[in-house]
Amino acid sequence: MPGAKKDTSDRELIITRLLNAPVSLVWEVWTNPEHIKNWWGPTGFTNTISLMDVKPGGEWDLVMHGPDGTDYKNKSVFKEIVKPERIVYDHVSAPKFTATITFEEQQGKTLLTWHMLFETKEQFEQVVKTFKADEGLKQNIVKLEAYLKAQFSLRNELKTNTIARVTTYLNFPGNTEKAFNFYKKVFGTEFSGKGIQRFGDIPAEAGHPPVPDNIKKMVLHVELPILGGHVLMATDAPKEMGFELIQGNNMHICLEPETREETKRLFDSLSEGGNITMPLEDMFFGAYFGECTDKFGINWMFNHINK
């Protein structure tokens, strides 16, 4: 019948997930290469992004590093960008497909729909059979959720008021516990609250794969008072959870002002002339939060707890 829409169900892959984060945050970690490199790809993969120009006609050059050491070069071209609702891009390197990602606000959460349309049925079947693209896509969304949750949610548990303070947040490649036991001995203090919280303590959720056994004992969050009321906080940054740790992004000065107004003033002042890595916004974990690198290359976090 002329004009009838062609059925493409035999060569498309679709997944939806309701993310416990606002659209603005999900859009940011999807379109900012400093974020997407930390969660993109199946479990165990890390990424190097040489170019990500998020605009119609803009190119995205990405190398995915497999857990076995194999590199997978990917090149895409963005077709449509409707902030913060829709991203469409053509994956122009093999295998060729068109990806459409939509972001729908649902009472403070984000309904993410990820659609991949391959050129042919045979290509689709080969990609699913050879590369397990369907399972890889599921793992990709799980890594996105883990990135949103593990990086931010627990750091507010031990602060029950809005009194201003300055803390230091550290990331380690897997030896947080060793480092913090050393600091504990040096300063003669004790870990706050629940002590060391581990990746294995993350509650199991329906539809999510379990935390890999080799990182269950790694540190998810720990806090240690040191001197003059100053607090060190830290987490391990395992590659298995999508993190890429390098010297320079392993330490932030974390400011916790008493008011939203002071938080915004400090954020605006310190980010001027620098690089905003996460815009200052209300986050799903109950804080007014943002990150930047100032014009001298120093990393800052801003965290005002909404009470």
Summary tags:
Alpha-D-Glucose-1,6-Bisphosphate, Chain A, domain 4, 2,3-Dihydroxybiphenyl 1,2-Dioxygenase, domain 1, 22% helix, seven-stranded antiparallel sheet, 6 helices, alpha+beta
When the domains are counted, the total is: 2
* Largest sheet: number of strands, sense, barrel closure: 8 strands, mixed
Q: Would you tell me which CATH topology of the largest domain applies?
A: 2,3-Dihydroxybiphenyl 1,2-Dioxygenase, domain 1
- Kindly estimate the percentage of residues that lie in beta strands according to DSSP: 35-45%
CATH superfamily of the largest domain: 2,3-Dihydroxybiphenyl 1,2-Dioxygenase, domain 1
Tell me which CATH architecture of the largest domain applies here.
Roll
The shape is globular
Average pLDDT, all residues: 84
What is the distance, rounded to the nearest whole angstrom, between the alpha carbons of the first and last residues? Answer: 60 Å
Q: Counting H and I runs of at least 4 residues, what is the number of helices?
A: 6
Number of strands: 15
**Name of the CATH class of the largest domain:** Alpha Beta
Rg, Cα atoms, Å: 21 Å
**How do the helices and strands follow one another from N- to C-terminus?**
EHHEEEEEEHHEHEEEEHEEE
Stretches where pLDDT is under 50 for at least 5 consecutive residues are: none
Helix-strand category: alpha+beta
Helix residue percentage: 10-25%
Question: Which sequence of strands runs across the widest sheet?
Answer: 9-10-11-8-12-15-14-13
